[in-house]
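Practice problem 4.
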């Protein structure tokens, strides 16, 4: 089969938030790039994921002239409750420094895609059998089969692996070149997508386990129910989902058609270093935080901005120092947020269900939560968690 060859500065693997944000940053600075995505466009733009862009992300998009991609509404103070044993806790946030937005990830991805393509960006969907070559010697080459079945090869200066935890980018790196740090939390979430308005909205702590009901659109909600690590979706009938949700929140939920169910293990993972030769890992390809922390998008956007500035410096000034220091720049920030993610995840789960770490840890977690609710900054945190857990 004849292979068609192309040339660009950066090949970006994955058209999610990190990949498309990076593509837009580079395009606006006159740096050529090609974005490869294995799924069709319709799939990517409907994929339900997290919904909170924190103050860092909002200000970052504005600073890069991309405010138009923020098509979500600010988190209203009246939305997103926090319940303990069926009782609503006070969340009263009035902070002019907080600019967090609720924007479903599929909406953000759709907006980023439209801006990228409108600016002349090269985005290729249904790229199959992607392989990465020459990562440490010469110029890298990315080979794939395009949507029409033709063999393609793109030579480039750098590769950005933005294709998630299970993508090809990190799997291409020899295991001996990476150190994996991981932590399993000992419990999972049943994640349910339901066609219903989000009522009640927020997070609930209960002796049966944690629960969440988070908006993913005007008439679509994501439901989370703490469960055992060996649980299966088949054990959760639709009626059981609704009854458990009602018990944990202490109020009847708005019901609708359940569209999907899956078990989500809660874990934290960090890979060090976040680069190998000319391949750089961004977002979930390099690290995972539990969804309880609502910081997955934040970390992906932070990686993206650090890498974009490094590439721009290299292209415009011939200075590779920022690229060489990519991991050293990102990892302290990542570990800081991993510390937060571990704290909030353990606290929220221990405060209700005692089957994992016992009654003593429950009482410690309850005391911590009561202390936090007296803190203005923590009150804002719980408001954001209740409005848009990842």
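Answer key:
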């Amino acid at each position: 089969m004849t292979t068609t060859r192309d040339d660009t500065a950066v090949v970006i693997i994955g058209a999610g938030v990190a990949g498309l944000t990076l593509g837009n940053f580079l395009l606006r600075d006159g740096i050529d790039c090609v974005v490869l995505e294995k799924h069709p466009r319709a799939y990517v733009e409907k994929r339900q994921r997290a919904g909170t862009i924190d103050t860092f992300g909002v200000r970052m998009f504005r600073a890069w002239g991309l405010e138009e991609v923020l098509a979500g509404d600010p988190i209203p103070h009246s939305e997103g409750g926090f319940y303990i044993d069926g009782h609503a806790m006070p969340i009263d946030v009035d902070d002019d420094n907080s600019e967090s937005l609720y924007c479903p990830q599929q909406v953000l991805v759709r907006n980023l895609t439209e801006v990228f393509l409108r600016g002349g960006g090269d985005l290729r969907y249904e790229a199959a059998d992607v392989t990465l070559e020459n990562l440490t010697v010469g110029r890298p080459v990315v080979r794939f089969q395009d949507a029409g079945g033709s063999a393609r090869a793109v030579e480039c200066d750098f590769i950005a692996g933005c294709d998630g935890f299970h993508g090809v980018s990190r799997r291409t790196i020899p295991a001996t070149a990476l150190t994996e740090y991981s932590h399993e939390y000992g419990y999972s979430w049943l994640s349910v997508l339901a066609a219903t308005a989000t009522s009640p909205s927020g997070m609930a702590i209960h002796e049966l386990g944690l629960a969440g009901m988070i908006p993913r659109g005007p008439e679509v909600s994501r439901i989370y129910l703490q469960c055992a690590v060996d649980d299966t979706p088949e054990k959760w009938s639709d009626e059981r989902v609704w009854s458990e949700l009602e018990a944990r929140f202490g109020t009847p939920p708005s019901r609708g058609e359940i569209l999907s169910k899956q078990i989500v293990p809660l874990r934290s993972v960090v890979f060090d270093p976040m680069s190998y030769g000319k391949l750089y890992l961004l977002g979930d390809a390099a690290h995972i935080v539990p969804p309880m922390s609502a910081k997955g998008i934040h970390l992906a956007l932070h990686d993206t901005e650090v890498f974009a500035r490094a590439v721009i410096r290299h292209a415009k000034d011939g200075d590779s120092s920022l690229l060489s220091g990519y991991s050293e720049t990102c990892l302290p920030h990542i570990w800081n947020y991993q510390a937060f993610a571990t704290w909030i995840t353990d606290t929220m789960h221990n405060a209700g269900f005692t089957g994992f770490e016992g009654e003593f840890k429950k009482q410690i977690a309850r005391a911590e939560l009561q202390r936090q609710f007296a803190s203005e900054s923590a009150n804002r945190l719980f408001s954001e968690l209740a409005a848009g857990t990842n």
